[in-house]
Recover the amino acids of this structure.
């Protein structure tokens, strides 16, 4: 079911106490938060997820999404000024840190759970105390089963969740590629994240340096056409860093007076 189909009818409640929240003071977080409220299921349902043989049970106050699907729900019209999907997903991670929601990511999808959904959104919801305890741990336990990986028993298999820097950097590279070519085929981001993991663990690259190189390569007229995967990024990393150093503008000292 698409985001548009989910929000065709019905309504959600907005409580005035939101004025006192950190989310209200940030327009981007507020937009992301209200989008989550509207996307959340109002009743339990079984949802078919592409690539999985069995449907996934989604409870009230939960919804299944992905980085690009959520970005499309936030910005249905493609415009140059729209933030990247990578940036929008970071807003969700911030909402998780604020304990507004929980995110459980698998290799096929992410399950978002709104914290205290029943307290605030059920039909007979009454006024709630302002200082109610957070229920993020209860939320995490409730969605754990939906993200069980059948390959967990196999050795040397690692699933990179969307919160990890390996996955985020792989996603960043793909976001930048898609900005230049919207029809670029979506890769296996788990496979891409593995190459980032090798760059960090084996090659000794820092995540900050990797991000810097990714962004520089995306701006370069030559390398932007050649760095189209994290495996190629790893292969050409040294050449890229050398080119970056050579591309730095030299300081013109000719105008300085001789001592």
């Amino acid at each position: 079911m698409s985001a548009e189909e989910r929000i065709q009818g019905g309504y959600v409640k907005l409580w005035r106490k939101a004025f006192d929240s950190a989310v209200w003071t940030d327009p981007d977080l507020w937009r992301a938060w209200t989008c989550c409220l509207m996307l959340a299921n109002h009743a339990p349902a079984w949802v078919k997820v592409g690539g999985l043989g069995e449907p996934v049970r989604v409870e009230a106050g939960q919804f299944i999404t992905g980085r690009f699907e959520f970005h499309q729900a936030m910005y249905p019209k493609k415009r140059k000024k729209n933030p990247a999907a990578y940036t929008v997903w970071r807003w969700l991670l911030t909402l998780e840190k604020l304990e507004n929601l929980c995110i459980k990511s698998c290799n096929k999808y992410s399950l978002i759970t709104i914290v205290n959904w029943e307290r605030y959104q059920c039909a007979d919801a009454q006024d709630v105390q302002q200082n109610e305890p957070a229920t993020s741990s209860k939320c995490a336990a409730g969605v754990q089963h939906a993200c069980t990986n059948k390959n967990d028993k196999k050795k040397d298999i690692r699933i990179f969740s969307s919160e990890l820097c390996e996955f985020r950097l792989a996603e960043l590279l793909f976001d930048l590629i898609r900005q230049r070519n919207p029809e670029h085929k979506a890769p296996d981001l788990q496979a891409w994240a593995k190459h980032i993991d090798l760059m960090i663990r084996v090659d000794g690259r820092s995540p900050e340096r990797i991000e810097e190189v990714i962004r520089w390569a995306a701006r370069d007229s030559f390398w932007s056409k050649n760095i189209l995967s994290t495996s190629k990024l790893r292969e050409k990393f040294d050449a890229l860093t050398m080119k970056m150093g050579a591309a730095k503008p030299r300081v013109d000292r000719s105008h300085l007076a001789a001592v």
Notes: The CA atoms of residues 43 and 60 lie 4 Å apart. Strands lie at 45-47, 56-58, 62-65, 101-105, 110-114. The chain has two domains: 3-147, 165-247. Confidence is low (pLDDT under 50) at residues 127-138, 140-156.
